[in-house]
Amino acid sequence: MNPHLVQKLGFGLLALISLVVVIPILLVIGAILAQGAPAISAEFLTAMPRDGMKAGGILPAIVGTLLLTAGTGLVAIPMGVGAAIYLSEYARDTGLTRAVRLAIVNLASVPSVVYGLFGVGIFVLLLQFGTSILAGSLTLAIMTLPVIISTSEEALRAVPMEFRTVSASLGGTPWQGIRRVVLPQALPGIITGVILGLLRSAGETAPILFTVAAFYLPALPQSVMDQTMALPYHLYVISTQVPGMPLSIQFGTALTLLIYVLSMNVIATLIRGYFRRRREW
Amino acid sequence: MIKIRAEHVDAYYGAKQVLADISLDIKERQITALIGPSGCGKSTFMRCLNRMNDSVRIFSLRGDVYLDGDPIYADTYDVVQLRQRVGMVFQRPNPFPQTVYDNVAFGPRVVARERGADLDSIVEESLRRVGLWQELRDKLTQDALSLSLGQQQRLCLARVLSTRPEVILMDEPASALDPIETLRIEDLMRELIELYTIVIVTHNMQQAARVSDWTAFFLTDDGLTGKLVEYGETGQIFTQPDDKRTIDYITGRFG
Ligand SMILES: Nc1ncnc2c1ncn2[C@@H]1O[C@H](COP(=O)(O)OP(=O)(O)O)[C@@H](O)[C@H]1O
Ligand SMILES: [Mg+2]
Prior knowledge:
With 281 residues, chain A is mainly α. Chain A has eleven helices and two strands. In chain A, a hairpin with a 4-residue loop joins strand 1 and strand 2.
C-alpha cells in the first residue's frame, strides 16, 4: 500500500480515537454548563438554602468546601512537602525507606471511602473531634498526602545532584543547599503536585460523608469543631436524597464545583508555565 | 611556605583502593598542577583537600592532610570553615539557576550571613577579581545560565572567591571551554596567585606547563590504585623528569 496513504489513515485513526476520548468530556461539561449556567446568580452563590434546599443559594456548601480545602492544605502541605524533603534529601536507601515509599504509592490508590471510614474511626471517634471541619480536613489531608509526597519527591529528585554538591563545597549545610537552591528549583513541581492533590480532595464525597458533612445546615460554621455543608456532598444529597429537587439547582451546584476544580487546575498550569518561562531566557 | 600537606594518604571507595601513599606539599600562593591519565585518582585526591569525599558513604581515607599545619581530618575540625577556606571550581560550569548576584552572594549570604551593603561590596569585589564586573555590573539580576560558558565558569570562580578562601581547587576548570575562554581562565589564575593558593587538575599538558609552578604526576600501574610518580617544579618535570613514565606521559606515549 502507498505509505502516504498508510500515514494518512494512521493519523486519521488516531485523531478519531482522541475525539472519542474528548467528546464525552465535552458533552458532560457542555450539559452542565447549559443547564447550570442559568441557575447561577448572585443569590445562588451568596444566599443560604431555603425550603428544604429547593430554593435559595448554596453559600454554606461553597464556604464549607473552601474551608475544607484550606484545612486540608494547612495540614497536608507542610507534612507532605516535609516528608518528600526527608525522603529525597535525607533518608538513606534502606529497607525501611523503601517500605515507606511502597506504602505511599499504594496509599494513593486506596479508595476514598476507606479514608472516610479511617477518619471516622480515628478523628471522629477515637480522638473525639466529632463530625467537624477538623475531622474532615484531617481525613482529606491523609488522603491527599500520598499525592503531595510522591509528586514533591519527584520534583526534588529532578534537581541535579550537582547543585547540592556545589552548595556543600561553599560550606553550606545540606539544609542550606536544600533551602536556597533545591527547593526553589523544585517549587513549580511541588506546587503542581499540591494543587493536584487538593483538587482531588475538593471533589471527594466519601471521606467527608461521615467526618464533617452536614445534610442541611443553613448556617455558616463558627469554628473548626462545627459541621459544615460541602459542595460534593451537597450535590449528592440534592441529586439523590431530596424528591422534587429542581434540576436547575442540581446543575448549578455541579457547575459551581466544576468551576472551582477547573480554576484550581488552570492556576496550577499557569504557575507551571510561569516558572518554565522564567527558566528559559 | 607550605599551605597544604598530604601525608601518606590512602583512599578507598569501599574495598577498592584508589590512592596509595600520596605525600605531597602544596606551596602557598603557587599553582600546583595534578596531571595523569583519567582514573588515576586526581579528582579523588583533590576532593580529599576540602573533605568533599565525606558525603560519599563508601569513601574512607587513611593518612593525614594538614591545612596550615592543622589536621583537617581531626574529629573536631570545622568542615564548614574548611570549605570556606578551601574552595572548589568544578569541571562543568555549574552556576545555580539563579541571578548573577545570588550566585556570587551564596556563600557569604547563606553561610556567613552577610547582608545589605556588606554583601553588595563582597559581590562586587568578587566579580572584579574574575574580570566580570565591567561586563555584568548592569546585569546582576540576569539569570546566570544566560551567560556564555566562559563567563559562567568565571562566575563560579567568583562564587568561590566571595567566601574569602585561601586555597582554590580547580578540577579541569577549562575542559568545557573554548581556547579563548581557556586562556582567559589561565590568565586569571596567574593573577589570583597574588592572593590565593591554587591546585588545578588538568588533562592538558600545555596548560599544566603554561600555568603551573609545581606539577604532580599521578599514575596507576594496575588500573585501579593511583600513586604519585613524580612531583617537582613544573619546568623540571617537563624538561628533565626523573621517571621514564613521566616522559612517556608528557610526550603523549600513553594516557
Ligand atoms: N564515588 C565513587 N565511588 C566509587 N568509585 C569512585 C567514585 N569516584 C571515583 N571513583 C573511582 O576512583 C578512581 C579514581 O577516580 P578519579 O579520582 O575521578 O580519577 P581522575 O580524576 O584522575 O580521572 C576511578 O577508578 C573511579 O572509578
Ligand atoms: Mg577527574
